[in-house]
Design a protein that fits this description.
By secondary structure, the chain is mostly helical. It contains 16 helices and 2 strands. It has a two-stranded antiparallel sheet. Strand 1 and strand 2 form a beta hairpin. Helix 3 runs antiparallel to helix 4, helix 5 packs parallel to helix 7 and helix 8 runs parallel beside helix 10. It starts with a helix and ends in a 5-residue tail after the last helix.
Amino acid sequence: MTRTLMIAVAVAVCISKAGHCETNTSGAVEAGDDLGKIENLLQVAPEALDVRDEHHRSLLHWAAAKGQRQMAEMLLAKGADPNVADGQGVTPLQMAAAAGQTEVAELLLAKSAKVNATNEQGVAALYIAARQGQKTTVELLLAKGADVKMRDIEGCTALHRAAEHGDTNIVALLLAKGADVNARSKEAITPLQLAAVSGHKDVVELLLAKGADVNAKAKDDETALHAVADEGLKDVAEVLIAKGAAVNARAYPEKLTPLALAARAGHSNVVELLRQHGGTE
């Protein structure tokens, strides 16, 4: 192992230990010192700043993921690229967003990190924070100009993922910033359908109150009611029916109704509910 790589490994371990490290002459790392030791390491071999791990992630990636603000600040001051991407196009800002490291995310943005940069899956930091339920980070990203309507390679938006995750507060934030309540993925799936099949009744109610189409159909003609009937989610089915869901809509090549799906899956309580509202097979 070269001295540069040894020092890069040493710094990486320091980051994992919350910025506290000591090194011996072989480059080994032990707990017990402070950020100044890491700065000294990089002064000895500044090229270590650019060494990547097996995922092509930099020291700044890991400082962002660990929430090491002082570490990230030092790395940026020494020339680390705030928009450096790993082997899958993931940036430090995206890693901070995933972990809810809002202070580091704010620092990166102040140092010209691109708020709408996407990885290989077409995913930006806002999408990631929304998917992970990181409300404070979502608020920051929206305030810094994150595009609420950006889509991943499957055509899903941050609202799709927030709805699927079941975070009512984040869903409300995104809608307030102009998210399309009826946005459709490439498979024509809406946020309502994802919230419904995931059993998030509160999110379903919110989306419907904001104008979600209760009878929106995916490419196979499946509606939200089909999905919840198949999963046996009676409480969500009740909400959908109360808002005008078509109880006898037919989907899939077999032209199945929600009742037929509930019966096939053995959800007798949902079968009874659908029959009470005129459902047939």
